[in-house]
Structures are given as C-alpha cells and as structure tokens.
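Summary for the steering committee. The consortium agreed at its last meeting that each partner would contribute one worked example illustrating the joint modelling workflow. Our contribution is presented below. We chose a case with several input lines so that the handling of multiple components could be demonstrated. No manual editing was applied between input and output; the record is shown as generated.
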Amino acid sequence: MDITVAVDAMGGDHGTHVTVPAVLKFLKAHPEANVVLVGLKDALEAELRARHAVTGPRLRIHHATEVVMMDESPQSALKNKKDSSMRVAINLVKTGEAHACVSAGNTGALMATARFVLKTLPGIERPAIAKLLPSMRGSTCVLDLGANVDCTPQQLLQFGIMGATLVSALNHQPNPSVGLLNIGSEEIKGNDVVKQTADLLRNSQLNFHGNVEGNDIYRGVVDVVVCDGFMGNIALKASEGIAKMLGQFLKEEFTKSWWRKLLALVAYPVLSSLKHRVDPRRYNGASLLGLRGIVVKSHGGADELAFYYALEQAAEEAKSGVLHKISDMMANAVVPTPQEKSVEPQ
Amino acid sequence: MDITVAVDAMGGDHGTHVTVPAVLKFLKAHPEANVVLVGLKDALEAELRARHAVTGPRLRIHHATEVVMMDESPQSALKNKKDSSMRVAINLVKTGEAHACVSAGNTGALMATARFVLKTLPGIERPAIAKLLPSMRGSTCVLDLGANVDCTPQQLLQFGIMGATLVSALNHQPNPSVGLLNIGSEEIKGNDVVKQTADLLRNSQLNFHGNVEGNDIYRGVVDVVVCDGFMGNIALKASEGIAKMLGQFLKEEFTKSWWRKLLALVAYPVLSSLKHRVDPRRYNGASLLGLRGIVVKSHGGADELAFYYALEQAAEEAKSGVLHKISDMMANAVVPTPQEKSVEPQ
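What follows is the complete predicted structure of the assembly.
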C-alpha cells in the first residue's frame, strides 16, 4: 500500500534543517512512501538544493505562507494562521491528499488545529496524546500524555479503547491488556474519577488488568496505561528527567580520570548499545488519537533521526488502518453509565 | 544534643531481621543517639542475641504485643491494634520519651495512626509525605508523595511552607526556592487547583519560583517541589520504574558475552561508584510532615543499609528542630485567600 505523509516542514525548533533531511532518509528507507513537504516554498527548495535533492513524484512541495511559532497560543494559531504549514498539512489529511501528517510544532496549537480541522471520531469526546514508551518487556502505550488536564471516567474509557486499538493494530496483538494509572494497585485507592473509571473499564469489552502504578509503565505489566493528561505528562517528564540525570552521571563517572576515559573507549560497544536501546529518539512520535485523521506529533527539539522515527510512526499507523479500527471499536463499544454521576462531562 | 529514636522494630517486609542490625549500625555511627526498639520482646531479644548485642542505656526494648500487617487497612490498624509496635513507637514521641520515630510499616496505617496520636501542627490541615530526591544539583524535596489524593490550594501552600522549612533546616539554606508541579511552565497551564495554588504561593512569604515540570525535579531547578499526593506518587513511582529498567539494561549489556563480563570486572570501580551515587537506599526515609512530632517512613522493602539511612533522616530532623521551625513559619505565615472560591477545603 502506497502511503502519503504530509509534513509540517517548518515546525519544531530547527524547522527545515531537520525535517527535510529526515524526509529524504525516510523516502530512501521506505520505497512505498510519498511525502508532501508543507511550508515556505523558497526555504524548502533551498534546503533541498543544499542536500542535492529534487522534488519528483514521491516528494512534492506544498506552499504555505505562514508558520506557527513554538510559543504561540493555540487560539492565535487557530485564528490568525489559516495558511500555516501546520494547518495546511492537516488540511491535506482532511481532503484525503495525505494519509497522515507529522509536525514538530507546538503541541497546543497542533492539537487545537487538528481537532478543529479534522473533528473527533464518532463516540470520542476528546482526542488524547498517546505514545509507546520502552519497557522491560517491549513497550507500553501510555495515554493521555498532556492534551486533557481534567477527564471524566467516560473519556478515560474512550482513551482505553483508543490505546488498545492502537497497540492491537501496530503490534498485531489481538487483545492488549489495559491498566489504569493509580497510586496503588488496590481497588480502594485513588480519587473518585479513578474509581469510577475502573468500574467502567471493568464492565467494558477491554482486557482490563486493574490499577497499575507509575513503575508498572516500565515493568511492562500491561500493554496500555490509561490516565488523564496531567498525570501522564508528569509521569513522562519525571521519567525523562531521571533518565537524563542517570545518563549524565554515567558520563561523569566515565570521564573522571584519563584511566576511566580509556576504559570508556574500550567499553564503547557496550555503552553505545545501551545508548541505542534507551535512545529517546527511537521513541519519538506521539499519536493524536481520536481524530478523523492520523496526526503524529514529533518532539519540538527532535533531530533528524528522531523526526525520522516520527515519520515512520505516521506511516505505520496509516498502513495498519488504526483509524478505521478505532471507529469500529467505538461503534461496537459497550459504554456503560458510571454508577455515580458526580463528575459531569465537560 | 542527645537524640532518642523510637523504632517500630516489627514493621516492613523483613521486620526485626532488618531493623535490629540497622539500629546497631546506627548506634555505632552516632554516639549521641539512643534507640528504643518497640515490638515483641522475645523476638527482639532473640535478634539481639543472634547479633551478640545487648540492651543498655543507649538501647532499650519497649514491649508491644501487636504488629500491623503490611496490607492491613488504616482503619483496622487504628481500631484493632492499639498495642502495635507502630502505634507504641508513635506514642513514645507523643509522651516525649523519644524525639522521633521510624517505621517501615504500611504507609496508610502509619499516616492514620500518626495523625490520630500526634495531631497536626497549628495551621496545618493535613500532613504530607516529603522526600529528598537526588538531582543534578544535589537534592530536591518533593511533597506530597501520596498521603493526600486531592488537595485544596491552601493545603498545597501549607505543603510549600513545610517543604521549604524542612530543606532550610536540614541543608541550612536560608530561603529555599519552591516550585509548583505542573504540565508546563507557563502560568496559563494546569487545572484550577494548580492555578489558584500558584496565586497563593506568589503572594506568600515563600521564595516562589513558579511552575515546574516533572523533569525539573531531577534538573534541580528548585529546592522544593509542591504537588498533590496523586501526582507526587506517580512522579516518584514512574522515576523508580525507569531507573530500575535502565539499571537492568546496563546489567544486561555488561553480561551479554564473556568479553563484556570481563569488561564489567575491569570497569567495576566506575560502575560501583555510579551505583553508589544513585543508590535508592541512600534516599530512603520519607518525612511525615505537619504532625506534632517527627515520624519517618522507611520503604517497606528496605534492607539494613536503607533502614539505617531512614534512622539518620529521623535523627537529622530532630537535631535541626524542624518541628519548631514549621510551627514558627506557620504562626508567621501570611495565608492569603484564593481569588476564586470554586474549590472548597475538604
């Protein structure tokens, strides 16, 4: 199956200097893929020229006159930047000219624009940001990672369905297990929203494991971890923070003396294979799930390799038909009413 | 200053097998300290005998007939175990026979019992669990780590005051900086509780830095990070999870072949100094802050060394007079009313 990916080529901290070489690498590695580079035509042509590349049937440029700034508010992006590279890339997904789009632009603006342009799938109240994180047993899909600070139990159930469908489609896993992020594995733990969500998940068609704790994400206890965007974001950022600190400490220990530096040289294959294994760039590419189109968010600071992985993520999602699968799941979903009604959908 | 620490010798996964040797090590290292071992007399005497140790003026046994189970509900512990080692140890703090107590028993029961027996300090609505976590610049005090799933802005402000006072007392730092855990550093981010808390912190006498994100805990951006117990617990557990996974990966990489195993032997001093630096046992000992007495919670699975560090934490807090300092801070605290009243104290 031929896949066309629309790329917001201006997004991210490094813009075309990262997006264009990543796209070239992606096209080389994936003969079935086509890319539409969306952004300022002159800048894109200059970047391609600098890399001795030319447009052709597999690589087109789609001119867009505006750029959403990394610190621009979602409202401003929506209202004032109707011809931004971000919005035009999403439009290409809406019109069917692209199967998916990828942007390293600012998350708030991307989510707001994608939601406005594409709308949510039937039965989904709010889109969620989902990501596959490394675990001791492979990977764990965690959602929401920051799109929704407050969620109702129904919305969290929808996240569970979307996450399970994503994992099932990408990893060809028939019935992925779903856990609910909580502060203890016992049923009595947590706040009202979490308790009501557990009831909903328990009575749903999902393979619900029960409550899981923060460390279970990396233990690989379940395939999907459901939480609101506040908790998901805190868990993700805290993990990134400690991983970075440990990496820094490892580096410091191996550079403390000339003897240790020599040792690091000898141990290079080991250290480099460890680095590869936990390289966050390999896990770049978060999915904006629940929309009527595939949108993948790359880290803003992504380099060429990281952006390449976000492109692969988008292509994989398009190929696996994850969108139709979520629609089907939602159409067949038994969404029970929570036992208590104290939390109203927003 | 002489310090007496009451130890719940039966608590934790390993009971006396861990608490007694840790206490012996602690008494040896701290000539100014005394310990009261609280628990089943026979078990304690047998354990001391096995370690060729005897009681004396610096090491007493206080008999307690009951033990709180690790999975026992706080309600059951409070109601049915009035002569538990945990409760009697806390009682010794209340009566002034000990300056502090340490328990590796179950967190819920410890918090409920400590709160019931000792009561909270004036101006403090709820105690919080605080811990110093390692950072790239030393350590960061994070609270609450799981005692309170839902918090009002006023309670979060109280946590800020308690955390700042703890850091100031332990690290002799005059005006520690305080950050509010959020999903973005911008003021507009977060839910209503977080926004109102930021207003309170901004108008308080604290050195408020503003919002911080999960990774900032380990970057050491601020001295104190304030959050509700749900978020704090998720951040802590997620961090522990990824740290354990990275440690496991490092081990796997260094044992993949005989050549790599040999390399690990040669690199032993480096790996071991890294291990020491990030050894979670060195950070064992969470403070139950806001009570009229010093209570330190050790990890349930703590080994001898880890429990030793929890004992040191308790002694440090007693010596630094953190309790009186929190009282003074609260007495002088300007606790402004939040601008919006939508969130009521619970």
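Confidence is low (pLDDT under 50) at residues 337-346 of chain A. The first strand of chain A starts at residue 3 and ends at 8.
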